[in-house]
Amino acid sequence: MGDVERTDRDGVATLKLNRPESLNALSPKLFIELRDHVEAIATDTDGVGCVILCGAGKSFSSGNDLRAIQAGEAAPTPEFQAETLDAIEAMPQPVIAAVRGHCYTGALEVVLACDLLLASDTARFSDTHGRWGMTPTWGMSQRLPRRVGLLSAKDMMFSGRVVDGCESVRLGLANECVADGVLDARAAELAGAIAANSWYTLRAQKRLLNEGQRYTLAEGLAFERANSSGATPDTLKRLKEFGGRKKG
Question: What is the pTM (predicted TM-score) of this model?
Answer without folding.
Answer: 0.95
